[in-house]
Amino acid sequence: MILSANNIHKSYGNLAILKGVDLEVERGEIVSIVGASGAGKSTLLHIIGTLDRPDQGHLIINDVDVNHLNERKLSLFRNQHIGFIFQFHHLLPEFTALENVCIPAFINGVPKKEAEKRGMELLERLGVQARADHKPTAMSGGEQQRVSVARALMNNPSLILADEPSGNLDSENAASLHQLFFELRDSLNQTFIIVTHNEELARISDRTIHMRDGKIF
Ligand code: ADP
Ligand code: ADP
């Protein structure tokens, strides 16, 4: 099991957002999380991604009890084990595609040459190697999203968290992004937890989790 979340609670002020969420995910699973806006999906994904801490409950990722890590250890853990893909890709505008993809490796202290070699392999795998020297504004939305997926994969994370990854893509680009997730799972056994409104993605996932009013049902 790669993830075990147990009785997760989270409030903002006195507004309870997560009200006792339990979730277990096996390595190599592709799990979709669906539910109405405001159900708490993004909040749950942030907590699983260790970007935010739960008020209550246990969270074990890769056999590590992450609640017990201090901020420094937590950020190292996150950078090593978890990849993030967002709807709005958050690429840094002043850097090229290759530089953006290499940033997680630089943070880990990987030498520039080695990072760039792997960065180019990833861009190639994602079919955007021709864009390596372009800045984000010179690329289409689909290309930018592929670059951000390459960045998420840079440190070879075992767990990839995606929040509406295809929300900003046309149906053709969305389908090819989803196909890529399955290819990565099949070749590298990576695990995906994906918040999505895309019905096709939910349909082809290994498992679909429904959230309503801060709970999984
Ligand atoms: P979903 O992703 O299912 O749409 P969210 O997890 O984004 O749901 O949000 C659930 C609720 O939590 C919403 O009402 C939202 O306004 C609130 N919320 C989310 N993040 C914060 C925050 N940082 N501070 C206060 N309220 C928040
Ligand atoms: P397959 O078995 O589908 O051929 P491989 O695991 O052999 O897949 O990798 C194919 C390509 O993916 C290689 O060029 C490799 O450099 C690249 N690759 C390696 N690690 C990753 C990763 N974490 N994410 C995406 N691509 C990767």
TrEMBL record:
It holds the Pfam family ABC_tran. The keyword Nucleotide-binding applies. Coiled coil: none annotated. The keyword DNA-binding does not apply. Keywords: ATP-binding, Cell membrane, Lipoprotein, Membrane, Nucleotide-binding, Translocase, Transport. CDD domains: ABC_MJ0796_LolCDE_FtsE (cd03255). One of its GO terms (biological process) is protein localization to outer membrane. Belongs to the ABC transporter superfamily. This is Lipoprotein-releasing system ATP-binding protein.
